[in-house]
Fold this sequence. Notes:
The strands form four sheets. Strands 2-5-8-1-9 form a five-stranded parallel sheet. Strands 3-4 form a two-stranded antiparallel sheet. A two-stranded antiparallel ribbon has the order 6-7. It is α/β, with parallel strands linked by helices. The longest helix has 23 residues, at 3-25. Strand 6 (134-137) and strand 7 form a beta hairpin. The protein contains 14 helices and eleven strands. Helix 1 (3-25) crosses helix 3.
Amino acid sequence: MSEEETIQNDSKQIVESLRSVINQRIIGQHEVVDQIIAALLARGHILLEGVPGTAKTLLVRILSGALGLKFGRVQFTPDLMPSDITGVSIYRETSKEFEFRSGPIFTDLLLADEINRAPAKTQSALLEAMQEKQVTVDGTTHSLGNKFTVFATQNPIEFEGTYPLPEAQLDRFLVNIKIDYPSKESEVAILDEYSEGFDAEVESTFMPSPVVSPEQLDSLWHAASKIKVASEIREYIADIVRATRDDSEIRVGASPRATIALFKIARAYALMDGRDYVIPDDVKEAAPLVLRHRISLAPELQIDGRPIEDVITSILSRTVAPQ
Length: 323
């Protein structure tokens, strides 16, 4: 077995361990779990969208435990200020100097809960952190570390008390993952877990021991960066994104950042499947996650309630995939 094959097999086993631990605790959301792992491997920030009570917060807490990473949470509210997230400088009379008191953003996995309940000014406080993995307060820059990842939960925009996210911030989320209600069978299985002592409010009943070390996570990131993407696949990715800019049903198409995101996520799916190369199906699977929050439909389609997913499916169907 070659060194590349050994790396791919080891990576797949690590991913399987992580997937298994999460799926044991988050019932009936296997596809969502795979999407989150793919985004993690691609080193991107994740926007989770769904109605309250669909285990978005629980999922991120379990992921932090399985990875052995520090977890932080900010509940976004209409009166939340940027300094409540990043931290503030406080003048100390004893030392005659300002001392920086860090905010909850200084963590590994940050859960920005109900992010669209805060106004745009506060949402924008995350922009530098998401792009540069650092924050600047009073002219001083503070590093957040290379593991820093934002998991933002968003309620559907039609819910009362929500604000639309600025387009610049939406573009910095690698993927938009939608979490739907579980099936009846899964919901009954959830009740079975509760009858046996599980409680989402009691951490000791669900928090796993780490199954992926920081070194293994680094190796996964390195392996994902080495996945081969043939020139025809790269052209296919560019064709899909560019098609969003020429479609009459779309008011605002996806940016070049979406092209890069699709490239990264496709590599992650290949790694999860134990391959060292990307195939068109990897791109097709990743496209809705990457595009749905980056494009805006024409006003008449919004009025008609046309799902963005339908438009993305149409683009994929008429974009010729390499053989």
